[in-house]
Amino acid sequence: MLSLQHDILRTDISGMPLEWISYQGAVRLYYLEQVAYSCGHLLYRIHGGYNAATGRRSVIDVNSIIATDGSVQASLKGRPGYTPPLNNATLFRRDGFLCMYCGGHQRQSNLSRDHVRPMSRGGDDAWNNVVTACKHCNSHKGNRAPEQAGMQLLAVPFTPTHAEYVYLQGRRILADQMEFLRAHFPRRSPLRERLKSSSYASAARFLS
Ligand SMILES: [Zn+2]
Fold first, then answer.
1. Distance 125 CA to ligand 1 centre (A)
2. Domains (ranges, CATH) in the chain?
3. Is the C or the N end of the chain the one with fewer CB within 10 Å?
4. Crossing angle of helices 162-169/175-182, nearest 10°?
5. What is the distance between the alpha carbons of residues 123 and 159, in angstroms, rounded to a whole number?
6. Structure confidence by residue, pLDDT tens digits, 104-163
7. Are strands 57-68 and 8-11 parallel, antiparallel or unpaired?
8. Burial (CB count <10 Å: 0-12, 13-18, 19+), residue 164
9. Which is higher by pLDDT, 19 or 79?
10. What is the pTM of this model?
11. Distance between Cα 92 and ligand 1 center (Å)
12. Lowest mean pLDDT among 78-92, 97-111, 176-190
């Protein structure tokens, strides 16, 4: 039997990825009849209570991807100018948990958010000015721009679209969910290249 560890990818009515929800959250949406249609494969079959009158037991099938009636807020996130909130956990995942200066693969506790152009020099605390850096490189760089510190960036920082952001927040992403999300990435998404490399590929290995 499947354990209930996989999240369900929720989309709006047009199929735009919105967020991850637990199976409980999905069951609630099914009960509230807010699920417009399902995609992906059958992930969980949830048995409910027995109906006192008929003696029949209710069953809800939860698929890996469900489309729900959209909200205004959701459609705003799909717009080209939308910027997802910046946080370290998602930033580190964007950069594959690699220090963008020395290329070292580090555990999260040894990583930090580096402002490529330091904030004290007018740099923004924004996706396109921040990279993942190990604490060693970050303190070596100090309050300088990379060229002043004799350091070179391994990849250009970018602002994820909402679909990319949803992907970066995912845990134990299933193959069909991965495929669905990737179809919503911009054609030139840097994540497409990164997904081909081995460390990212493991995220999509959970076939049911
Ligand atoms: Zn480093």
1. 20
2. 8-77 (no CATH), 88-141 (1.10.30.50)
3. N
4. 160
5. 15
6. 988 889 999 999 999 999 999 999 999 999 999 999 999 999 999 999 999 999 999 999
7. parallel
8. buried
9. 19
10. 0.84
11. 13
12. 78-92
Ligand 1 center to 81 CA (angstroms): 31
Task: Calculate how far, in angstroms, residue 190's C-alpha sits from the geometric centre of ligand 1.
Answer: 21
What is the Cα–Cα distance from 50 to 9, expressed in whole angstroms?
29
Distance in angstroms (rounded) separating the CA atoms of residues 140 and 37:
52
| Dist. CA 88–CA 72, nearest whole Å | 27
Distance from Cα 185 to the centre of ligand 1, integer Å: 28
Residue 95 CA to ligand 1 center (angstroms) comes to: 12
- CA-nearest of 39, 56, 40, 59 to 48 is 59
Question: Distance, CA 120 to ligand 1 centroid (Å)?
Answer: 21
DSSP 56: P
Residue 30 neighbours by CB under 8 Å, 6+ apart: 60, 62
Burial class (CB in 10 A: 0-12, 13-18, 19+), 118: middle
What is the 106 CA–ligand 1 centroid distance (Å)?
9
Report the pLDDT value the prediction gives residue 136, as an integer from 0 to 100. Answer: 96
98 CA distance to ligand 1 middle (Å) = 8
